[in-house]
Structure formats: C-alpha cells, structure tokens
Amino acid sequence: MDELIKALEAKGVLASAALCRAFAKVDRAHFVPPSVFPLAYHDTALPIGWGQTISQPYTVAFMLELLAPQAGDHILDVGSGSGWQTAMLAEMVGRRGKVYAIELVRNLFEFGKKNIEQYPQLFQRVRFYCQNAETGLPQVAEAIAGFDAIIAAARVAEVPQAWRAQLKIGGRLVYPKANAIYREIKREQGWEVTKYPGFVFVPFKSSAKAHTT
What we know:
single chain, alpha/beta, two-stranded antiparallel sheet, globular, methyltransferase
C-alpha cells in the first residue's frame, strides 16, 4: 500500500494530509475478492462481482480531494460497493461525523459491510442502507439539517433532484456524468459547478426494496 500511496502522491492526487492518512489506514486489499487480491495495490479498477468494480485508486483519491471531507461531517455515500471509499470517509469524518452508505445490490451490500467490519472503530461511524439511492435519505437529511457532502461512485444520466435538496448550503456534491467528474457546491444564490473530464465509470442503477442497518 505504501508504494501505491507514493505513486498517487507523485501524480498530485493525495494532496491533503487527512486523505493520505485515510489511504494509509484503510488497506485496499481488505476490500477486494481473493481472485484479484494480487492486484489490490495496482492503480487500476478491479472486478468485485455482481457486475461491479472497485474504482481505480487515482479516481477515488481525485474525487475525495474534490469532496474535501471534514471532521464532524455527515456524508451520503451513494453506491458504496466494496466499502473501501466508505471506510476512508469514516476515517476522515472522525468520531463526531457519520457516513450514510447506500448500495442497491444486496450481495454487494453484504460484501461491503463485512469488509468494513474489519475496522470496528470506522464501522461504528457508518449507517448502511440497501436501497434505491435516487431519493437519497430524506428522513436522515431532515434530522441533521442536510448533508455536508454527497458523493456518487457510479455514472448518472442526471443528478437526482433529491440529492440537491438534501444538501445543506455550502455542501459539496461530487459525481460522475458521461466521461467526467463534476463538483457542485450549493450556494445561497445557486450552484457553483466545476467539470473534470477524462474518467470512465459503471452506470448508476436504481430499483430495490429498502433495508437499513
């Protein structure tokens, strides 16, 4: 993992100390199936089953730098998959923060949850939801007066309006669309949007019954 971290730092995508600590603490090898374990520290996306992948480390680092998680944040993690990014978010938000992880595919939901259980302290900072993410988590958003940040791991055709509505003023929304990553910051007067082209993602899926843990 040290070599991977050094390679990402050399590419300029591990700029913040908080993200460097998260990458060092949360071992990617704990979040991949045995079939691809030898490739866990390669800077490439890997298949994890059920038609899904664990994203390329460069891409994860790039998106998390844009999201800029802070201690105490409440973050909605859409498409939590293997749980690797979720666990790093849990590390970055600290004891006062919380990560709300949504995964649609039941088997992948269980896989990711089990992976994060290897980090008991981080596991306690995550709420898990196996459901459609299009509607976000309206009851949670209302209870916490809006999410500080929302991140999506899969490509969307259009950003669900529910995500925008559930983000607090000053909150950050990071998501893939077409072949680019977007960051939107919610302002009183509207949205501050920045586009970063040159990325490829699996498509966003919807439809499933809800299950929470």
